[in-house]
């Protein structure tokens, strides 16, 4: 570490500056000599934010201590400093051999300056062993038939899941009734006919039942529900928590730095169903907790979610909403307990990972897998995978404590890693690289030179941004979508998609259109209003986790909870800028809300979705939409891949805090300045000079990577990428 001092003498119109290393911009004439520290690093070290890597632990990794060679490679030939282990190709982390191998691996990694996390697949662990019937998850399927003139009918129902085979199927309930319309029945005709059912022997997962109900029942509908058991744990069972604790306890002596559940959720439904998926999760513990929590019968609720008495649509609305609301609590509760117990065992600094996005869209099988709890799972940083759109990921960022977020990314197109990493860096997004020693199933092997030669120069530039420690992105627009409207299509049958949710809303497409038009935004579900995470500040602006937004676009308020409607009422009452897409005729309980919604609607600035009319909300597109991103504290980030690939610096011209800055950079540039134009923070790849308002304020003897940070006492700390102290930097007022 070299300390360089400079004296500043006052002159009539300008400060005459002589610097061996640096003179602080904006210094008052009477100020004492500046204390300046310059640190030379080769290469520039990482700071503040981990550089995440997914590392496959295969039999080959553990054999002959291959991991020792891998650790040397990761620690000394890559930028990665925090690999997460995941068992692959037959390795089982619950076995003694795997435990011992991982323990040795972690110890050696620590000696080489790496932190190590581990993904514990408790779902797989739970299904590998025989599970008590009382602890098994079940799925309810249904079917119906019409009674013929002789009083007979035959009804068949079946269920098929993606990740497990059915073990056993039983009839749960059967009703006969006079059908009055689609999903409606005459309540005077409803009869429980379960006792009259005659079971036809069938394979597990299928139930065929015959009924002989007499000629008087001709024309009625028979509706039945069957329950199928699977050898996987009911998420509401105490056995699930015991399994979770056991998986963590096995590694108490290992000293892990992080733990994760990867894509955690329920047993998997078909990803591309050949026919619409209409099953519903249940189980003994599921049922007990549902009935304890809601005060309702689960069986009755499932029936009400399929049929409502004539003239009472609120029965079906409430049943669908209530069931989904409870089902979504299962994965979230396990995530919360995993987070809590991991920190109990490994300490409060245990890194919580990874993402629980599964197939990364709102209208596929995601709801049945993870419950779409992306924004509410406990994490230091928002996390996603597989290229979730930026407006969705910005919602994950602002919903979690950290100022950045991670997107786990993989693929065979190596150049795409570089373009994605630099584009995402404009908005404080980082890649969680997947995966080291990938054999080709998921993508490129990130341990190979073909990848490292392309990507390491990019990550070395992003390290400058990590040292810059950016504020959160400036996101003036909050896009909120109604979770109940997404999960409850009723009564719009045309909107009911293959996964039994509303596939007609186009939430992701609308958010992307807003982003593509240059309006920086964050997408969140109405959950965050209902749980109190989104509040209104003294200026009646929406605030989430310390982030303030100028306006709200609310998509699809149908069946919103009263807490959401009341929030929108208060927001618009005080002049809140609102664009409302869709109408709410009833709330979460199915109760009409016409008067309340009409008040909200009357105050909204725009009552339909329109990118062209976003300006009516008092927001404007980002001036850096094509080149970079703005941050909440007024600083900016610019990135450019072509300069790195060509070796030719990129010229820039940008306004920051009312001052005009010009210069050149390679790869990344970030700047924070105060109202006087004084540089407070600077990160610049290949930096050679910086102008402010037409004057040179910074020059370097040689173009190099630079991070410059102003201290509280007015002095600066600079990091230059150099092997020794031969490079010189001058910063003037």
Structure description:
- A hairpin with a 2-residue loop joins strand 34 (679-692) and strand 35.
- The protein contains 19 helices and 37 strands.
- Helices cover 26% and strands 30% of the residues.
- It has 733 residues and is of the alpha/beta class.
- The strands form 7 sheets. Strands 1, 4, 29, 30, 31, 32, 33, 34, 35, 36 and 37 form an 11-stranded mixed beta sheet that branches. Strands 18-15-7-6-5-21-20-19 form an 8-stranded parallel beta sheet.
- Helix 5 packs parallel to helix 9 and helix 7 packs across helix 8.
- Mean pLDDT is 93; it is low at 1-34.
Quick structural summary:
The chain is of the alpha/beta class. The chain contains 19 helices and 37 strands. It folds into four domains: 2-41 and 634-731, no CATH class; 52-126 and 329-468, TIM Barrel, CATH 3.20.20; 133-234 and 265-327, no CATH class; 477-617, Rossmann fold (3-Layer(aba) Sandwich).
The poorly predicted ranges are: 1-34
End-to-end C-alpha gap = 25 Å
Per DSSP E runs of 2 or more residues, the count of β-strands stands at 37
The count of domains is 4
- Class by alpha and beta content: alpha/beta
Name the CATH architecture of the largest domain: Alpha-Beta Barrel
Proportion of β residues? 25-35%
Q: How would the global form be characterised?
A: globular
Please tally the helical runs, counting DSSP H or I stretches of 4 or more residues. Answer: 19
Radius of gyration: 30 Å
CATH topology of the largest domain: TIM Barrel
How can the largest sheet be summarized? 11 strands, mixed
**What would the average pLDDT be, to the nearest integer?**
93
Please estimate the helix content.
25-40%
Q: Which CATH class of the largest domain applies here?
A: Alpha Beta
